[in-house]
Amino acid sequence: MIVRPREREIRTETIRSCIQEHMEGLRRLHRLRAYYDGRHDVLQRNRVSGLPNCRLVNGFPRYIATMASGYLIGSPVEYRAMDRRQEAALEAVRRVYREGRMDSVDAELARDASVWGKGVEVLYADGRARPRAAALDAREAFVVYDDTVAAQPLFGVHVAKRLTPLGETKGAKVMVYTDERILAFETEDPARLRREDLREIQEHYFSGVPMIEYWNNAEEKGDFEGVMSLIDAYDQLQSDRVNDKQQFVDALLVLYGCSLEADERGRSPGQQLREDKAIALPDCDARAEWLCKQLNEADTEVLKNALKDDIHKMSMVPDLTDQQFAGNASGVAMRYKLLGLEQLTKIKERWFREALLTRLHRVAGFLGRQGALRLDPERVELIFTRALPVNELEEAQTVNLLRGLVDDEELRRRVGA
């Protein structure tokens, strides 16, 4: 989190220092995205010339991020008014969310938060003055907060490449979002931003900073960031297994008591062996045998499974391909297996809910300026639904047991009807 004291007017020097501080953390963000995309450190590994150098990459980062974000936001968030008088105002917001495909934006933000530790969103008005939202790359955008215990947002910054009509990069565009205005800069180097680079100032009417960060947790850490060393060890182990197999195939033939020479057709000993699949030894006391590296697959498999189990345990994302996991079909057993992921998701949900509530304040404020009914976002309930497999037989049995004890509306809610 980037923190600065609140000023009467935001100075260009303050913006420049924040950009420089953000750029200091870009190496970490680039590495996290590289792992999500399958570009792991093992791809840079070199071995002695002549030895096989297989570099295998596993998909643990993408699996962990997809499972964690999907479990959180796989089902779209529902918004329910606590007060019936707020229902009409909330329906206007729901319509904006439907038209703007907010559920897709939410899914992208949850994925970004799982990878980078935070997702960044910007609110804007389209050509018909309708509020819309877009997810930004966390490597290009950030929010600056004040130095109070409340940590209120001061302004947001989006640094994007400035492209020519030919698709070439020429400097950068720096958009600064305050609580009332948008400042547009054009510069050759964002780290050296000057006041003279300011090109345009316009109002945004969102009644607050329209850039919002969706944190994954209090430390802004990604879901697989803590197990990257285990992932590296798994990559190296699997790569070395293939390297050993290749070296096993390329075994050496050792001759005792003799040496071989080219035959009458000029073929080398190696060529003779490849073509004839046999060699003739000149002396009855001579012998030949293959020199092979002994492979202990059992020990390697134990180590591989141990690393795999540690990755899932430490990331708190279960392995759904585990046969023991799939064999537990009952609801209680399934929830027990998902206990770690559930605890992780509860933490993610708290931070995601806070950001969604901030968005609701901004959108409601924008619609209020257009004359829509005033909505009190604090009187709106945000409902997250876990994307869990359903045991329909077990649900039906539970409903039958509760029939007569619970009203029909509650029973329908229970089965999701």
Automatic annotation (TrEMBL):
This is Phage portal protein. NCBIfam families: portal_SPP1. Pfam families: SPP1_portal.
